[in-house]
Amino acid sequence: MTDWCVTINLGGPRQSAVAQEGMLAWTQEIMAGQCPPLMIFAQETFPEWLRVVRAAGYEVIEGVDRQWKVRSGLVVDKALSVRGLTEADLPHLFYHGNYVSAGLWKRPDGSEAVLASVHASPSYAEPERYGWPSDAGHPKSRHGGSDPRWPNHRLWDSDYLLMTLRHLGDTFDLPLLAAGDFNESLLDDPEGGTWGSEFFSNADSLGVSSWLHEEWRDDYRHERPTRTGLQLDHILVARGGEKLLRSDPAPETDVRWADPRRARRLSDHAAIWFALAEQP
Questions:
Q1: Domain range holding 148?
Q2: pTM for the full model?
Q3: Residue 228 is part of a domain; what is its CATH number?
Q4: Domain count, the chain
Q5: Burial class (CB in 10 A: 0-12, 13-18, 19+), 123
Q6: 46 pLDDT more than 80
Q7: d(CA 230, CA 184)
C-alpha cells in the first residue's frame, strides 16, 4: 500500500478566521479519508490545528523554540519511529528556530533518513543577529539578472536554508527529504531574469535537488503554481533522498484548491500530495 504524504503552508495567524476554519475542516477531511497521510510537512501552523492532528494520533516535531509566531511542524503517524533533531544535532537549526523542524526517521527495514519541514523567511538574511554558526561558511550569493527587486549579492534566508539542508545531509550521511515553503520560484523570473534559476542552480551545486522539478518537467519551466501564480512550495532531496519517493502515483496539488471559490476558504498555498516509496 502506498504511504501518502502532504506538504502544506497553513497560513498561520495571518490567515482569516474563515481560512483557519477551512484548514481545520480540510485536515479533518483528509484524516478521515481512505488514504490519510502518513506524514505532513506543515508550515505556519496554529494551535487549534496542532490540537486536531495530535487528537488524530499524530506526533508533532517542532523546531528550536525561539518564540516566533511562524512555526513549522513535522507531523508523523505515531507508528513511525522519528526522533526530533535539535541544535545539539546541528547548530544551524538554532538559526532557523521555529521555521524549520527536522527529524531522524528509522524505517521499518532498519535504514534511516533525515526529514525536514522547512519555511524560508521571505526576508534578508541576518546571520549575526540570529546565530548562524561561525564555522559554517556562507551561501553563494545571487545577482538576479539585474532585476531591481533583488539587490545584487544580497543574501536571503532561503539561501541559508539551502546550506542547512546540505549540512543536514552531510552530518548524518543519510538520505534527506525536505518539503515546504521556500519562497522561491522559477515562474517569478521575468524574461532574462535569473533569480529563481540561480537559487536552484545553487541548490544543485550543494548536492540538493528539486524532485518536483524533475517530476513536473513537462510543465512550463518545470513548475506548477501553488500560490498566486507561483510555485513557492517544493520538495528537495539530497544523498539519494529521491529513493524515498514514488513517481507513480505522481505528485499533485490538492484538487480542493482548483475551485477558486473553495480555495478562498483555505490556505493561500495549495497543498501538494506525494507518495513514499514502498518499503523494501
A1: 3-276
A2: 0.96
A3: 3.60.10.10
A4: 1
A5: exposed
A6: yes
A7: 9
